[in-house]
Each structure stands twice: as C-alpha cells, then as structure tokens.
Design goal:
- The chain has 366 residues and is α+β, with helices and mostly antiparallel strands.
- 43% of the residues lie in helices and 16% in strands.
- The protein has helices at 9-17, 22-29, 33-42, 68-80, 97-106, 130-138, 159-170, 187-199, 225-235, 245-252, 263-266, 281-294, 298-312, 335-347, 352-360; strands at residues 81-83, 89-93, 113-114, 124-128, 171-173, 179-184, 204-210, 216-223, 272-280, 326-334.
- Pfam families: LAGLIDADG_3.
- InterPro entries: Homing_endonucl, INTEIN, Intein_endonuc_central, LAGLIDADG_dom.
Amino acid sequence: MPRNPGMTDDKIIELYNSGLPYEKLCEIIGLSDRAIRNVLNKHGVELNPVGRPRIHKVNEDFFKTWSHEMAWVLGLFITDGHVNKNMHSVYLAQKDETILMKVAKLMDASPNIAQGTGTRTTPMLIINSKMIKQDLGRLGVIPNKSFTVPLPVVPDEFLPSFVRGVIDGDGWVGREGYQMNITTASLTFANGLLDVFIIWGFSSSISTIKGSNGKPIYRVWIRGKDQLLRLSDILYLDSNSNYVAHKMIRMTLNKIPTHLRSKEEYITDQGRIAFRTTISKRILMQLKNIAIEQQKPVNHILELYFVQLLEKGTISYCKSNRPKDRIQYKTTYKKDLLNDVREFAKSNGLYINDVIEYSTGLGKNI
C-alpha cells in the first residue's frame, strides 16, 4: 500500500504523537496500522497501547462553568469543531493557528496541533478527554452535528462572546464593513441566531442557497454600516483579545476616519478588476451626464452609489420593472467593493445588474 503524498517518516511520527487514533492515521497516511507501527519502531518511538490515544493535559472542567472565554470557545467548537464518535477525542480546525494556540491556552490544554495534510489543509487542535467530549455533547456539539445542531441556551451575560465565537468560526464580514453573515447547515441554529439578533434590535434576515450536496445552506445576515458598528460594540466589549483579528478589523473599520486608516487596518485590496454586465441604456446616459457635471469617471460615481446602498443594507426591488433597454457596459471597480455587491445581490435573490441600477436611484424600481 503506497503512502499518501508528503507522508515522510517524520510526518508519520508527528501525526502519531498528535494523539490521532490508528483509524484516522491510516486514512491520512495511506498505510495500514501495522505499517505505521513498523515506521515508528524503526525510529524508536515509544508506542501507546493499541486503540488508546496519547494522554494530554487539559482542564476537564472548562465547559462546566460559564465565562466569556468558555462561551467564545464554545462558539468556535459549535461551528468549526468535530467530535470523534468512536474515541474520546474532539478537534477544532482553524486556518489561523494562533487561534488554536489561544484556545489551548484558555483550556489549559497541551498545544497538540496537527498540521493540514492530504485533503485536509487546515491546522487542527486535538483534545483527548472523555469529560470534554461529554460536556460538549451536553451543549450540542455531537458527531455529525452540521445539519441538526441547536443554538445552546447561553446566559445573556455571555451570549455576545458566544456569538463572537460563532462569527469567528463560520462568519463572513465584508471588507468594507457594511455587511456580515453566518453560514450554517442547521435551520434550527439559523433561526436561533436570527432571534438573538432581533432581540438585540437588529434588522436581520436569513437567505438560503443550495450546497454542493444539494441540501440547503442558510445565511443569517446583518447589513448596514451603522448596524455592524453597533454589533461590534456588543461583541467586543468583553473580548479580552479573544477574536479573529481580521473580522474584528472589518467590523469596526468605519469607526476610523478614512484618512487615518493605515494599510494594515484597512486591509482592502485597492486594485481594480474589469467587470462587464448589461445595464439600462437610459440609466447609463444619465450617469454619463452626472459624470460630466461632477468631473468624475462613471465607475467612481457608481462606487459611491454602491457604498450608500450597502450602508443602508436594504433593497426593495420589483423584478417585473426590470429595464428593457439593457446594453453591455464594461468598466473597472474596486475588487472587494464589487465582491460585496455580488454577495448583496445573491442574498436578495437578484442579479448584480439589478443592484447596480437600483443603487443609482435612476430606475423605475426606486
């Protein structure tokens, strides 16, 4: 049986020492459990009893008492966590390895991190503990939880920290700081989040898309610059630096005057990309007249309209009034702003040219 690509002896030893069971090791490495033991014996690695994971340090009472730290970590596990149904092991995957290190420190756990390999490219924190697995199960983190996970009952005091963890796990924040969504395959979880946001006073909504497996995926949205700034005030009040940095920066971006933002803080690619679509000939002619009056390029004026619409966060569009005089129009836009407009259109079940025309206020749908 050939090894999977990249499975050197050193890599096999690293994976074994991470505490993964042989069943998982065989899948990742591409060798039988006997062949894996032969590699380990060759290098003098001390073997654990078969079927028993290596014991690592962890605070087994971590999920028994609510705190802001516990609530944040629970939000991460409920989105990016995985529970081994055959072993007393739980895993947390995150692209940013510093988040895994932070979680390990909060849980007084050994920083037992397996690097991405094979089809899994994301680093993974491994915790071997029957008690942790049981406590997470009590809170809704169970094997194959994706489609059924409920929103756990979190004390109001710690709910912002939990939601921050959920956003850090499965949330997306637009680079311009005008919209945010949380993606989940569980309708129960999506409705629970929606209720939380409504209770907090936000105009939230759920959109549905079809996943690659044909099953529905739900996105819980909050839109508008002022809405996101108010949400950030709630989420980061007791954060103690427990958050994914780039999401926090995007959510709080509009608190900083544009001329004071450093490139690192703004983290928006200012490069432009060409984009072609169809747009009403009448609206385009009006835009060109406005451009002449203001002595600005048409696409720069359009971008201002995009920002105003994203700040507003809502759209009321009558599809039957779509213009009949659409012609092709190609120009360049800020890449990240255009991506935000794409997401806005998709979440509202519209085409991007619908949103472009609507943003100008020059069409029949206004």
